[in-house]
Amino acid sequence: MSIIENALKKAAKQGLVIDSQSAETVKLDVANGQGVSEPSLFASGAPNVEVENKVVTDRLVNIDWQALSENGFIDSNNAKSQLAEEFRVVKRPLVNNIQGSENNGINRSNLILICSSLPGEGKTFVSINLALSIANERDKSVLLIDADVEKPNVAKQLGIDNSRGLIEYLEDDTVNFSDILLKTDLPNLSIITAGKRHKFSTELLSSQRMYLFAEEVSRRYRDRIVIFDSPPLLVATQAQILAELVGQVVLVIAAEVTPQSVVNEAVSKLSNCDVVMTLLNKTRKEIDIYGHNYSYGKYGHF
């Protein structure tokens, strides 16, 4: 029995779901007040699209595009840069897995965890660039969640405030999804920051509310790709906890820096994940792949 199934059974016992067999509650349709058979796993009530859009309008944030470009991230004014092309290669197998999830058996394929073995390998750099690259597609929307709650860096890199975020949502049942969602000036990109520091952050990330949150965003927003920037695997237990919630994991490896034994140890902690991909970051030489040269030497330094 999966962790999600266990969480749902616990939720049923606590009255969070009505039908413990189907793990569904009945949500009232906003338009006519009639029952709709759509899953709703939030303890405090799942946000409908109309409410979400209203709140998001009030919580619009502007990304500091100039700072991003200066720090080596994808430049919004240069769609043909080498870095932009490299992330087109990186994102394609992930997107393909999502589009073919009904046939490939990957559960929650639209939830993607970006992690590394150790600090400084560039996972946040990859998380942000991957989110930007996917959000630039016409028919894809992206939710980037900073789940590195001990050392959050996404908000800082994007030039936005680390406002009420994931920790506040997990800590307080009265905080709704729409309360922590930030809409950015890139139309297809939304952000959830890490929120405040908390001494029991590990316990919050492993809580039933977090499991239900992951299930909710995966089921309710099937057209949205959710990217989690996580803590390093070998530094905090939080990354391994988060890896059990997602369908795909990208392990970022610093080229010529991270020992193979460390990578092997990190991979072993991901043995229960459906899909684990590796991304070699910060290499100083070009790599010939199918006749094309790719160099990650211009990646940011952390």
UniProtKB/TrEMBL annotation:
As recorded in UniProt, its EC number(s) are 2.7.10.2
Where would one find the signal peptide in this protein?
none
Residue ranges of domain AAA in the record: 113-244
Q: Which reaction does it catalyse?
A: L-tyrosyl-[protein] + ATP = O-phospho-L-tyrosyl-[protein] + ADP + H(+)
Q: Which UniProt keywords apply?
A: ATP-binding, Kinase, Nucleotide-binding, Transferase, Tyrosine-protein kinase
Q: Tell me the enzyme class.
A: transferase
Superkingdom to which the source organism belongs: Bacteria
| Family as reported in the entry's similarity comment | Belongs to the CpsD/CapB family.
Instruction: Please state what the protein is called.
Output: non-specific protein-tyrosine kinase
